[in-house]
Amino acid sequence: MGQRAAGAIPEKIRRRCPDNTSVSLDASPEALVRSVRTHLASFGADLLVVRGECEVGQRLLSSLPSGNLPLHVVRAGSGMNNINKDYLNSLGVVYSNTPDVNTASTADLTLSHLLDACRSLSRADQQVKQGSLDRDGLFGVTLSGKKLGIVGFGQIGQAVAARAKGFGMQVCALRPRSWPADKPAPEGVEFADSVDEVCEQADFLTLHVPLTPETRGMIGMAQLQKLGDPNRTWSNSRPRKPVVVNMARGAVLDYTAVAWALQNGALHVVATDVPDEGSDKLLQSMNNLEALGKLRFTPHIGGQAEEASEAMGVAVVKAAERLLKQFVDVSPKNRMLPSLAGNAALRRPWVVFQQHCPVVLHCRHDSAGEPEKPACGFSACRRYGLNCGGTNYTKLTTKDFLGS
C-alpha cells in the first residue's frame, strides 16, 4: 500500500496485534507475489492486506501448508480482479474489499477527464509550453445541456451522476439489476434497460463496472456506432463530439472497435484510467497522430487523493479489527469450552462468518481436541469445522461469542 494509506495502519493494528509485516510496493507484481508467498510460507498470517498489484490465488497460496493460509484477505480498494474468489472459497479463506473509500475521488477524476476532453486542456497546456498562444484549434463544447450515459450505476456511478447534474447535464444510466423494480430512478436520472439504449441516447459515456466475463469487451463496434452516429447532431446542427471515459478496467472496451471509432471520427476522445496490455496494442495500432491525440490515459489514479488514501487506511484497520474480534480469549464470560483455553492450535475454528451464517457457530470438539467431521458444504465452514445446520454444533449469538 502507498505510504499515505498505510501510514496509520501498523500503529493501530499493533495495539491489538503486535505481529505484523509489510512488503514493499517497490517491486514488480511477480516479485511482490514471491515476497508475500515467502513470508506466508515461513510465518503464516491471519490477515493479508493487498492492493491491486498482488494477485491472490493459486500461484500465491497453493504451495502453502493449510496452517499458514491467511484467514482473511482484504483488498484495499474496490476492484477485485486480482482476487481469485473461487479459489479462496475452495480454501475457506474469507475475502473483502473497501469499496466506498474511492467513490468521491474516482467520480472527481471522471469529470476531470470529461472536462479535459471537451475543453482540450491537456493540448492547450502543451501548446503554451511550446510557445504557441494560438487558440484556433482549441474550441471546445460545454457540458451543460449534454446527455451523459453511465454504465455501472453503483456508488461511483451515482456520484458521477450527481456531479454531472451540477454541470447542467442530463443523465441516462443503465438500470442496475439489483435496483428494485418499484423504486424510481434518482431525481434527474433516466434509466435505460440495455447498454445499446444508453449509447443511443448519450452524448458522452462513462464506465464504472467490474471486469467480468460478461463485461469484457461490452463496449464494442455496435455500441460505439450508436454513440457516434453521425446523423445525431447538437443544437444548430453542429456535429457531435462523443467521448468515452472508462474508469473501469481497460478490457471492458473492445480495443479494435475503439481504434476504428477514433480513426474514422466516430469518437472525439477516449480516456481510460486503467491502461493494460490492450491499451499498449491500441496505441501501437494508431496510424495517424490526430487519432493518437484522441487517446488519454491516467495510470490508475482514481483513488490517488489524500482523503481517499486516508479513508482506505482506516477501512483496512476496521477490517483488521473485525477479524481480531473473532479470535476472543476463552473464558467463562464467553461460555466457551474451558479445555480449549490457551490452545493456539485450536484458535482458527473460532471464526465469525457474518457473510454466511446468521449466528456465530462454535464447533464442538471431541475429547482429543479434534473438530468433529462437519456436514456443511460451505467451504469456510468446512475448513473451520463449522456446521450451519447446527446438528452437532452449538449455536451462539454474536453477543455470546464476543461477550458484548
Structure write-up:
The structure is a single chain. This protein has 404 residues and is an alpha/beta fold. The protein folds into three domains: 1-101 and 303-325, NAD(P)-binding Rossmann-like Domain (Rossmann fold); 103-297, 3-Layer(aba) Sandwich (Rossmann fold), CATH 3.40.50.720; 328-404, no CATH class. Helix content is 35%, strand content 12%. It has 16 helices and twelve strands. The strands form three sheets. It has a seven-stranded parallel β-sheet, with helices on both faces. It has a three-stranded parallel β-sheet with strand order 1-2-3, sandwiched between helices. It has a two-stranded antiparallel sheet with strand order 11-12. α6 crosses α8 (155-166) and α11 packs parallel to α12 (277-285). The longest helix is centred in the last third of the chain and has 20 residues, at 306-325. The two termini are 33 Å apart.
